[in-house]
Amino acid sequence: MSTIYEINTPHVISESLGDETVIINLETGTYHSLNRNAALIWQNLRKPIATNLLLEIMTVKEVVDQSAIAKALEDFLGVLLAQGLVRLSTTKSHSENITKMSLEDLQLVCDNYNDMQDLLGLDPIHEADPQAGWPHKH
Q1: Which domain holds residue 56?
Q2: In Å, what is the CA distance from 41 to each residue of 11, 27, 124, 134?
Q3: pLDDT tens digit sequence for 92-108
Q4: Domains contained in the chain, number
Q5: Is 21 within 8 Å of 35 (Cβ atoms)?
């Protein structure tokens, strides 16, 4: 049985910028940067999708056996799950509007940054100081 994953909405938001995708986890205040290969997989996680379906639509330009591709995908999804960016889904895997993925290699990179946690964690409506304004906590 294949595991089904989905993006951990509404706590996780993302935006693609060229070949890179930036993801913000609003619960933790961390933001993440995906390389081109990882961003292609992320695009297919916008709706619940099974790992076996992801493997079916992945091709890698370098000669790699299928077990190496499966291991790289499993490791990458494990990182996303540990960071709270995706969750296990209980809904049915989708199969429409799937983007086929042609990866350059098996480098699936998710860089993590926490230097803006304090700012991303602020609530500008409820935590604004009436005298000092925002982004000052009261």
Answers
A1: 4-137
A2: 19, 22, 33, 37
A3: 988 777 878 888 888 99
A4: 1
A5: no
| Buried residues in 68-83 as b, exposed as e (16+ CB within 10 A) | ebeebbeebbebbeeb
Tell me which residue has tokens 């099974």: 50
Location of structure tokens 């230097």: 115
Tokens 């951990």 — which residue? 8
Q: The tokens 């916008």 sit on which residue?
A: 46
* Pick from 106, 138, 134: nearest CA to 119: 134
Which tens digits make up the pLDDT trace of 16-38?
988 789 999 988 889 999 999 99
| Preceding peptide of 124 cis, ω within 30° | no
